[in-house]
Amino acid sequence: MTANSNLSRVSDILGALQDILARSEVTIPNLESPYSRFPNTDQSAPHKAKSIGAIITERQQQLDTVLHEISGLESVMDSIKNLEQQLLAKKNKITQSMILHKGLISGLWRLPIEVLSQIFHLCLPGIDELEPPSGLDPPVLLTGVCQRWRAITVATPSLWCRPSLLFCPGDQWERQAFCYDSWLKRSQGRPLSLTLCWNDCPYDTDKIRILLQPYVNQVSSVCIHFCEEDQHGLLWDNFPALRELTIVTSDLTTLRRSISQPPLTVTSLKFIGSYFTHQMLSSYNPTWTHLTNVVMEALEPIVVFDLLNLCPNLSSLMIGIMFSNSRRFAQLTHNNLRSLSIAFRHTDSLLNLFKAFSFPNLRVLETNSSEETEPWPHEEFKAFLALSMCPLECLVLGARVTTTDEQRAEYIDLIPSLKIVVDPSWPNYYDL
Across the strands, what pairs with 295? Predict the structure, then answer.
């Protein structure tokens, strides 16, 4: 039977039903009787009881007839419901076919490979999204759209260079290792940015070394989410091309030995989820001299002083200062710092910094506060600019940093080319 004949048959059935329903009307019978008007009076006389019994028999017959009609109608309704489901399924298939064929003449299919590749890059999860490789997310998801998209996705190595490798407990290692190795192979020798996490479970460092061994020369960036163990630190020594190292942990004490001597190839070091103390930094050997970029949280302002002494080649620093104190420290000139981002809770944290530091080559300064603070240290900041005599190009006054138009005008008087950005939504360390 053809599709047209099926359609005609269904249309005929629906037309007949509509015609029948239009002519159908349920007539409610008159159920009054000589006895229904006075139901509470004595009707116990023999002749009355016999007459009432006949009425009851008639009502039972009427009820049986209605129940039969209802049963028949429910059967018809079930059939109609089934027919409706078939029609909905048919509609969905027609819609899918129509979308497919519309897509075939869409300009999307005529986009050059280079353009599609750029679009695919925009689909990738964010760097900070800690999710294992999944068929529900790009780039794997893109390989299932069509043959052309699969070919482009698989042939674009840069789409496979930022995997998050989550190692779970149990007997899943073989499956995980196969999945991650397949992913890494598609990077085709490009620089890799790895995110490693063990989900607070025991792991076998040797197995992970074996998995990553073919790719160690590609790894340029590693972000490690630490458990309570210190064995993770053994992994970053295996990457001879490592440039960026990010450590996510709530307890730095167990990592003190490892992080005091990061690989000499590392120039960017970031710490998220924990803070440094004066005692920790002051006890380190001068093995951070090669660092040019640092992100960390400090317990007190003196840590900034320690860090700048420890990192003479530092060019970029993003730091959060948790508490303030009245401790003063010696004057310090740092000649290489070009970008400084400070998130603070109290303006007292800035007072000593502005008084003690000089940055002759500072280009960008960002300031943010995590809490409502005292007034901005305007005079101290002007003195800092005058002392540093730096070619400051951009001053960002972010969340909860309040200045007046007159104060900002004074900064521009000191540095006429200065660009000042007032943006309460500007991200800071505490947004990491």
Answer: 270, 318
Neighbour tally for 49: CB within 10 Å: 11
Q: What φ, ψ does residue 364 adopt, rounded to 5°? A: -130, 130
Task: Name, in order, each residue with C-beta under 8 angstroms of 314's C-beta and a sequence gap of 6 or more.
Answer: 291, 292, 293, 294, 307, 308, 334, 336, 337
**Is the distance from CB of 337 to CB of 366 less than 8 angstroms?**
no
Largest Cα–Cα distance in the chain?
Answer: 122
Burial of 161 (0-12, 13-18, 19+ CB in 10 A): buried
Handedness of CA 96, 97, 100, 101 (dihedral sign): negative
Question: Are β-strands 164-166 and 364-369 bridged in parallel, bridged antiparallel, or unpaired?
Answer: unpaired
Burial of 330 (0-12, 13-18, 19+ CB in 10 A): exposed
Return the structure tokens found at 374. 């005292």
Q: Check residue 338 and give its pLDDT.
A: 97
Q: What is the pLDDT of residues 70-107, one digit of tens each?
A: 887 788 888 888 888 888 998 999 998 888 777 777 77
Reduced to 3 states, what is the DSSP secondary structure of residue 48?
A: helix
With vertex at residue 247, the alpha carbon angle to CA 317 and CA 294, rounded to the nearest 5 degrees, is 10
* Torsions phi, psi for 384 (to 5 deg): -65, -45
Q: In this structure, is the dihedral angle defined by the CA atoms of residues 257, 261, 266 and 267, taken in order, positive or negative?
A: positive
What is the band of 407 on the pLDDT scale with cuts at 50, 70, 90?
A: very high
CA distance 430 to 426: 11
> Which phi and psi (to 5°) does residue 243 adopt?
-115, -35
User: Residue 285: CB partners within 8 Å, gap ≥ 6?
Assistant: 260, 261
Task: Give the Cα-Cα-Cα angle 310, 314, 317 (nearest 5 degrees).
Answer: 100
**Nearest to residue 428, comparing CAs of 344, 365, 343, 353?**
343
Which secondary-structure segment (H or E) carries 236?
Answer: helix 233-236
More confident residue, 204 or 218: 218
